[in-house]
Write a structure and sequence with these properties.
Layout: H1 13-26, H2 32-36, E1 42-44, E2 60-73, E3 79-86, E4 89-95, H3 100-112, E5 115-125, E6 128-132, E7 135-139, E8 150-152, H4 161-174, H5 183-189, H6 194-202, H7 210-214, H8 219-244, H9 256-263, H10 271-284, E9 291-296, H11 303-315, E10 319-324, H12 327-341, E11 348-351, H13 357-369, E12 374-378, H14 379-382, E13 391-396, H15 404-416, E14 425-430, H16 436-442, E15 447-451, E16 462-467, H17 471-483, E17 487-491, H18 500-516, E18 522-525, H19 531-542, E19 548-551, E20 564-569, H20 577-584, E21 595-600, H21 606-617, H22 621-632, H23 634-638, H24 640-643, H25 657-673, H26 675-686, H27 690-693
Parallel strand pairs: 4-6, 9-14, 9-15, 10-12, 10-13, 11-12, 13-14, 16-21, 17-19, 17-20, 18-19, 20-21
Antiparallel strand pairs: 1-8, 2-3, 2-5, 3-4, 5-6, 5-7
Helix pairs in contact: 6-8, 8-25, 8-26, 9-11, 10-11, 25-26
The structure holds adenosine-5'-diphosphate (ADP) and magnesium ion (MG).
Magnesium ion (MG) binds at residues 302-303, 397, 558.
């Protein structure tokens, strides 16, 4: 049904077409293939008329009524009320936004006692049956009803459903819709034909099971979801294979430096660390670039493995680079690498935002000459004008913090830094454990090593949920801990550090604690402090000169101060679960008993309570991620990685796990036996968006 907007179209056909094209491209629709794959969001059933008195509560129905009169009322707010009569029963249609042209239209309709059909939910209001802003259309007496469900497409303002539908139907007729899968595959996978499935979804036949269309369990939906998942698996695997074929320096099994360091390790590696290290070492001893993700919960000890891998590069006469998402984290890496590697004569280069012009020139020169063996800094610094002499390994820490775009830039950067034809090996590290299905889907283009064991002697962090009305008790707890030589974090919920108001909470809390805990030294750390100041505060905290560090989530990733044994998280209900888990991971790193106090503003919403309960009851990052996924759905869990391009439009990783497994197996088979078919399939589905799949 067409919603009348009342705008008269004075534009010439040509400008209307240009305007439509602009609106279409806003929806990402350019080619005929795009339109064909723009599948309905939902369906409306206009195939039968429902008497007003029989309309079920909570369901939208189509009713037919005769227009009697209309009025514009101003209470409780401006609205247009059209009084109609349907089968002898009065029915009022209310519109809260309307155009002058609609008034004219209803005037005419009332004069002629014209019929209309309205689609919406019938409710009982003050004056009898009514519908709030229904979609409607004026009709002639006895006009036939549509025979099929009416698809509703995601659209944008200015673009009518009818216009969009017409464009889609014409696309359906103008491109070949041959199947990318063979009949043998379809039979084996139990899938329906592609063209049939697409047509059915755009024009559902009469009598079809509406529920299965709406909840997307109909075989036609399954076919489309499978195709989408297959395209994703294929494109990521093709990207992986392409990169895997390029040449890279063979770093062998390390040399003198590596052997020397392994003999003098500051601690014995855990079994899980040894397994992951063996996987990394076997990758870099091959003449093709490593593309490995090292996953391990907070505190599982990823950094030392990165250091050992870097040493292998140095041993072989190459350079390595370590990139971190924040300056604080980068400086901490520098500290560790300096402790571990500098005594062996390995020259480290520290690139940070606070370098003066001359220092920066010197650092860049050391990197360019190859004299600097390992460069450490934030990713931002490596995106601008850094030229390596012989880069063999790029380590990206906390890679989940990087967006799709950034990941692409980093990759290109690494690729440009090749030594002749040689590509550097890549090691990504992440402490955000993601459940298996997500990993299968999103990391299909990476090899994954998992450290699933914490170093020995770690004591679990005691977590407590405390209403913020008991803040006084929390302060006493901090006093006692600090009197005992311990240190504490106090984390404030600042979502966007660029917003003055938000940052103020951290500044205010700092000021308040300075008064309330007069005998203690309170530090303040947030993202807007100049780099040098941040570093100074962090150093003072690490050295025990600051007792309580009031911080925003800049401390979320990686910060490692073993003497800190207490963390208070204010407004814990506002944080994401993985964030809370990360924050809690800042304590429990030393020998002391540690606690995490989640302060919440009461009353908690039901969802807020459910979320905090997950953190309270679980200490394993994987379990938390899995529960988080159930609560929020994959889009939010993955955050940035997805935000650059919505890679999945139809399939749902939670609900369609079986399809994902099938798609994965089929991808393997096609890549081995039918590359041509694989390419056709990827082309149909990804067209111009292939670059993103390579991120
Ligand atoms: P993450 O995996 O979160 O990056 P880190 O690499 O920062 O963890 O390690 C956390 C802490 O544990 C560091 O202080 C590190 O030196 C220490 N550590 C790492 N591996 C071991 C081990 N096998 N035994 C004891 N301590 C370890
Ligand atoms: Mg780390």
């Amino acid at each position: 049904m067409n919603v009348r907007r009342g705008s008269t179209n004075r534009n010439s056909g040509r400008t209307a077409a240009t305007r439509d094209a602009a609106l279409h491209s806003k929806l990402g629709l350019k080619t005929d293939e795009d339109f064909v794959l723009h599948l309905p969001l939902r369906y409306e059933d206009e195939t039968s008329l429902t008497p007003v008195t029989a309309a079920p509560v909570g369901h939208e129905v189509l009713v037919e009524a005769c227009v009697e009169r209309f009025e514009v009322a101003y209470r409780p707010r401006r609205q247009l009320i059209v009084h109609t009569r349907s089968d002898g029963h009065p029915l009022a249609l209310r519109f809260f936004s309307f155009y002058p042209s609609q008034l004219k239209q209803f005037q005419r309709a009332a004069d002629e006692q014209a019929m209309l059909r309205a689609y919406g939910e019938v409710r009982t209001g003050w004056f009898g049956a009514e519908m709030a802003h229904p979609r409607y259309r004026l009709v002639k007496e006895g006009e036939p009803l549509p025979k099929t469900l009416t698809p509703v497409y995601s659209s944008t303002s200015g673009l009518s459903q009818a216009g969009l539908r017409k464009r889609i139907l014409s696309a359906l007729d103008s491109i070949p819709m041959d199947d990318t899968l063979s009949p043998m595959h379809l039979r084996r996978l139990g899938l329906t034909d592609y063209a049939e499935s697409i047509r059915l979804l755009h024009q559902p036949p009469p009598g079809i099971d509406i529920r299965s269309l709406v909840d997307r369990t109909h075989p036609a939906w399954r076919r489309i979801k499978f195709d989408e998942l297959l395209a994703q698996q294929l494109s990521m695997r093709i990207a992986y294979d392409t990169r895997r074929q390029r040449p890279a320096p063979d770093l062998g099994s390390g040399g003198l430096l590596t052997r020397g360091f392994m003999e003098r390790l500051p601690f014995a590696l855990t079994g899980a660390q040894r397994r992951a290290l063996a996987e990394i070492q076997s990758d870099i001893a091959r003449p093709h670039p490593m593309q490995r993700l090292l996953q391990g919960d907070v505190g599982s000890g990823k950094t030392i493995l990165a250091a050992i891998a870097c040493l292998a590069a140095v041993d072989a006469g190459f350079q390595a680079v370590v990139m971190a998402p924040t300056e604080i984290l980068a400086e901490q890496h520098l500290g560790k690498f300096t402790d571990w590697l500098a005594p062996m004569g390995v020259r480290l280069v520290w690139l940070h935002g606070g370098l003066g012009a001359r220092e920066k020139r010197a650092a860049l020169a050391a990197i360019a000459s190859g004299e600097g063996a390992i460069a450490i800094g934030t990713h931002a610094l490596f995106q601008r004008g850094v030229e390596f002499n012989r880069l063999a390994l790029a380590v990206v820490d906390e890679q989940h913090r990087f967006g799709v775009e950034q990941r692409l830039t980093l990759k290109r950067k690494a690729e440009q830094s090749s030594v002749g034809q040689l590509q550097p090996h890549q090691l990504m590290m992440s402490a955000t454990p993601i459940p298996r299905t997500l990993a299968m889907s999103y990391y299909a283009d990476l090899d994954v090593s998992v450290i699933d064991e914490l170093p020995p002697g770690r004591k679990p962090v005691k977590t407590r949920l405390v209403a913020d009305s008991r803040r006084g008790e929390v302060l006493s707890r901090i006093r006692a801990a600090c009197a005992d030589g311990e240190q504490a974090y106090w984390v404030c919920p600042v979502i966007e550090e660029s917003r003055e108001g938000e940052l103020q909470t951290a500044i205010d809390t700092h000021r308040a604690l300075e008064v309330e805990l007069r005998e203690l030294r309170i530090g303040l750390l947030h993202g807007r402090l100049p780099g040098a100041e941040k570093a100074a505060v962090m150093r003072a905290f690490a050295a025990g000169e600051i007792h309580v560090l009031v911080a925003t989530t800049v401390i979320e990733v990686g910060v490692d101060v073993p003497n800190a044994s207490l963390i208070v998280i204010e407004h814990a209900e506002r944080f994401g679960l993985s964030q809370l888990h990360q924050l809690r991971g800042r304590v429990g790193r030393g020998l002391r008993d540690s606690s995490c106090i989640l302060l919440y503003a009461s009353p908690l919403s039901e969802n807020g309570r459910a979320r905090l309960k997950i953190i309270y009851e679980n200490s394993d990052g994987f379990d938390i991620a899995r529960l988080d996924l159930q609560l929020r759905g994959p889009g939010e869990v993955l955050g940035e990685r997805q935000s650059g391009a919505p890679l999945l439009r139809f399939a749902d990783l939670e609900l369609d796990q079986d399809l994902l497994e099938l798609a994965r197996a089929t991808a393997t088979e096609l890549l081995e036996h039918d590359l041509e078919c694989a390419r056709r399939h990827v082309d149909r589905w990804l067209g111009g968006r292939r670059d993103f799949a390579n991120a």
